[in-house]
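Quick one:
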Amino acid sequence: MIYLDNSATTLKKPESVYNAVTESMKLYGGNPGRGGYRLASEAAERVFLCRELVAKLFSVPTPEQVIFTKNTTEALNLAIKGCLSSGDHVVIGSMEHNSVLRPVHRLTKQGLITYSVAGADATGVVTAQAVKRAMTPKTKLIVINHMSNVCGSISPIEEIQELAKASGIFCLIDGAQSGGVLPLSLTPCSMIAFAGHKGLYGPQGTGGLCIGEEICLQPLTEGGTGSLSAEFDQPEILPDRLESGTLAAPQIWGLYHGISYVLSRGISAILKHEQELILMFRKEVRKCNGVRLYPQVEAEYGGVAAFRAENYDSASFCTLLDEKFGIAARGGLHCAPLAHKTLGTLRGGLVRISVSDFTSEQEMEQAMKGIKALL
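Output:
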C-alpha cells in the first residue's frame, strides 16, 4: 500500500517506537505515580523522560508545564474550556478543525461566550492582521491552526503570539499537523496542543498540551492523580491538576522514541523532505486536465496537498484509488468545514494526500500514475 493519509496518523514509525511500546508493556507495566514499588517507579520515570523531551521540542520552561492527553482534540478542549469565563470573546481562524470550532460553538450556544472568525487569504494563511481585525475589547483567547490539515497552509504563529502577548490575550496554537515538522516554541501567555501520533511518530492515543506561564486552567476532568490523595479537592500543582486517571505509559514511552527520532533527524530536514514531495506533486497535478489544486496560489505549504477531480465525488475518488492502485488518501471535509468554506469546497470536499518523513519519491510517482489513470 502507498499510504498518503499521514495528516490523520502516520502509519510508518521508527522501529524504536514499536519496540518501546512492547518493551514497556512487558517489562515496565506498572502504573506511573500509583505505587512505590520498582515497576511503578520505572513507569513514572519513563513518563517524566517523555515530558522532558516534549518540553525540549517546544521550548517549554519546565516539564511540569507539559500535560499529556489522549489526542489533540482533548488538549484543545482542555485549553478552551479551561481558560474561558462567561462574557469572554474568542478569535479563531477560518482554517480551524472541528476540534476547535465545536467546543467554541457549543459555549456560544450556551450563551457563555462569543467568537469571531479571522479569515484566511488566498493561500489559506491566517495573518496576524486578520486576527487583529477580528479582536474586540472582550477577547480573551486566540485559537489558530498552525498548519492546515486540509491544504497544508502555514500561518505565521510567531507574529500571532506576539500580537496576543502585546494585547494581554492568551494564544492557543493547534499544532496537530505542525508538531515535529515546523519550529514551534511556547511563550509565557500561549498554549500548544500537539498530537503524538502524527508528525512526532508516536502511537495513537498520545497527545498533549503545553501551558505557558501565567495561565491557570480549570481541569476538564478530576479524579485520582496519585498525589494528595487525602484531599477532596483536585491538586493545584502541575501536571497533576490537569491529569487525572491512569496515563497511557506504554504509548507515552513510544512517543518518547518518536520524538527522539524527530530531534535526531532534525525538524528542518523533515520539513524539507515533505515540502519537496508536495512541490513535485503539485507540479505534476498542474499538468493534468480535469483536476484542480486547492489553493490555486503557490505558496509555502507543509506536507499536504488537496485537489478536486472533475466528474468525481472526492470520497468515491479515494475509494477507487484504494481499490485499483492500493493508494490510501482521504476524501471529504476532513473534519474542517470552516476550511472548506474558506477554500470554496464545502460542497463535495477535496481529495487530500499527506506525506511523512517515511514517504518516498517513488511512492509519490506511483500515486501520481494512479491519479492520472482515473482522470
